Structure formats: C-alpha cells, structure tokens
C-alpha cells in the first residue's frame, strides 16, 4: 500500500468521524436553538395576552362601568380582550392559537376540550405550578404549547362568576344562567393555552444543518485536494527521485546524477545525507580499485 493511499485512508476516516461528530453537535445545537426561538415567541405572545388582560381590567373596565349596567359589554372581560387580540394576529399568522380554556365558562366557546382538561387538572392538583411547556401533534404538524393556570385571586371576579343571583342582569340576559357560575376564590378554573407551530423553525434549522454539512464537505474536499498536491510535490516526488537514484546505485550505476535537493526540511536533509553516503561509497570503491 503506497504512502498516498495510506494518507488518503487516514484522511477519509478522519473526515467520516469529523462529519459524524460535527453533524451530531450542529444538529443538536440547531434544534435546541429552534426550540428556544419558539419558546421566545410563545413567551412574547403570552406576555402580550397578559398585558391586554391587565390593560382591560385597569383601563377599559372602569371607563365602561356605567354602560355595563344598561348593556353587558364583552370588551370589559379580560379573557375576551386577550383572545380577540390574538385572533386579530391570526389573520396574518393563522397557525398560532390562543385559548382561555375553562371548565365551566360563561361563553361555551371557551369550554375546555379533553386535551385541555388534562392541563387544567394538572394545575388544579399542583397549585404551585405556574407554567407548563410541552408539545402536541396536530393536523398541521407539531405544536409547542405554553400553558398557565387561570386562578381566581380577585374577589371581584366572583361578582360575575360566583352566585347566579349576584351576577349583573345584563350579563345574564346575554349568556343565561346555565354556565359560568359557582367559581370559588383561589380555585383554578381554567388555563391560558398558547400554541405555536414548530414546523417552520424546525424546517429552517434542518435547512441550515444541511447547508452546513454541504459546506463542511466542500471544505474537506478542498483541503483533501490541497493536501494531496502538497504530498505529491513535497514528499512523494522527492522520495521517488531519491528512490530511483538509490535503485540505480544499488545496481552498480555509479555515474547517475546526485539528488537535486533544496531547503532544510526533513526530505532535503534525507537527500543531502543520501548524496554524502553515495560520495562516500564512490570514494571507498575508488580506494579498493587502487
């Protein structure tokens, strides 16, 4: 097996191991970065919903307190304001979803599904837990969800959702008496659930991964070619010249030219040493002929 073949085999094995290692590390890192990007987006949207709820309670509801006595306005409800805000966002980004899923809602549209009930039950059984992050599959692809409990911490909420007799008549006229009552202070009655699509960031991460691997392969091929050229002109070709002259000398051809060597590297040192050995051999043969 020639020197070039051995060198190329070592390079090939090194490349394969390097590609596997770099591919594993880069893929994990890109996937992690994509997930962090999704979580960051989900966090912004969730905080946006919380900001709208707070704004509604502090700014909108006091301004409409008189009108509510004549006509119930859903715009004064924090959940309605937050949901409507995200619904407006969904006109441009329909894959994002937000729901304030509730076990016993005033508005039937907010009633929790079986999957959402599981999340609410977890919050009800773990009151110290303030957030859940997970994944679930949908028809459009995997979704990352962020969920937070809806817990009754303000007694003012019970004026509408406590006893039926205490609820505003305008609200009863709009939604009826069947749903949304019987809530208790500090009770977890539902969950804010925000779902963000994972397919686009993950696809972008996969695309970046393949581009990186192709670029890495191109770099390796370039390095492979350059190293082979250097191997040819710096090592193999000089070694072939020395080997050819050594072969001629060993066959008794003492009149062949000396090795043409330049520089001070190891190959040049070998060439100079071979030339000195050859001259010493010639002198020794000349002395024998005398």
What does this structure look like?
There is one protein chain. The protein is α+β, with helices and mostly antiparallel strands and 290 residues long. The chain folds into two domains: 3-11 and 207-289, no CATH class; 24-198, Beta-Lactamase (2-Layer Sandwich). The chain contains eight helices and four strands. It has helices at residues 3-63, 65-70, 78-90, 114-125, 158-161, 169-175, 199-250, 266-289; strands at 97-102, 132-138, 141-151, 188-197. A four-stranded antiparallel β-sheet has the order 1-4-3-2, with helices on both faces. Helix 1 packs across helix 3 (78-90), helix 1 packs antiparallel against helix 7 (199-250) and helix 7 (199-250) packs parallel to helix 8. The longest helix has 61 residues, at 3-63. It is rod-shaped. The chain starts with a helix and ends with a helix. The mean pLDDT is 83.
From the 3D coordinates, which CATH architecture of the largest domain would you assign? 2-Layer Sandwich
Strand proportion = 5-15%
| Poorly predicted tracts of residues | none
Question: Quick one: CATH class of the largest domain?
Answer: Alpha Beta
In short:
This protein has a four-stranded antiparallel β-sheet with strand order 1-4-3-2, sandwiched between helices. The relative contact order is 0.11. The chain is of the alpha+beta class and 290 residues long.
Observed structural traits:
290 residues, alpha+beta, Beta-Lactamase, 4-stranded antiparallel sheet, 4 strands, 12% strand
């Amino acid at each position: 097996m020639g020197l070039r073949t051995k060198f190329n085999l070592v390079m090939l094995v090194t490349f394969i191991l390097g590609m596997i290692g770099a591919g594993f590390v880069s893929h994990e890192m890109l996937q992690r970065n994509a997930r962090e990007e999704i979580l960051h987006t989900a966090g912004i949207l969730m905080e946006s919903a919380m900001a709208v709820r707070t704004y509604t309670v502090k700014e909108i509801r006091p301004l409409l307190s008189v009108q509510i006595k004549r006509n119930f306005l859903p715009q004064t409800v924090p959940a309605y304001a937050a949901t409507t805000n995200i619904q407006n966002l969904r006109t441009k980004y329909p894959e994002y979803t937000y729901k304030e899923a509730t076990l016993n809602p005033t508005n039937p549209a907010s009633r929790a599904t079986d999957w959402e009930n599981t999340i609410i039950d977890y919050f009800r059984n773990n009151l110290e837990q303030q957030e859940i992050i997970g994944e679930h599959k949908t028809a459009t692809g995997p979704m990352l969800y962020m969920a937070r409990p809806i817990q009754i911490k303000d007694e003012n909420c019970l004026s509408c959702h406590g006893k039926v007799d205490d609820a505003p008549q305008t609200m009863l006229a709009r939604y009826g008496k069947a749903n949304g009552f019987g809530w208790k202070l500090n009770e977890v009655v539902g969950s804010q659930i925000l779902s963000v699509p994972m397919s686009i960031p993950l696809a972008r991460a996969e695309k970046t991964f393949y581009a990186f691997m192709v670029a890495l392969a191109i770099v390796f091929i370039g390095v492979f070619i350059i190293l082979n050229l250097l191997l040819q002109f710096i090592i193999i070709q000089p070694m072939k010249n020395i080997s050819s002259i050594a072969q001629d000398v060993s066959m008794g051809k003492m009149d062949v030219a000396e090795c043409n060597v330049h520089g001070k590297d190891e190959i040049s040192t070998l060439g100079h040493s071979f030339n000195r050995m050859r001259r010493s051999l010639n002198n020794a043969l000349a002395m024998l002929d005398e």
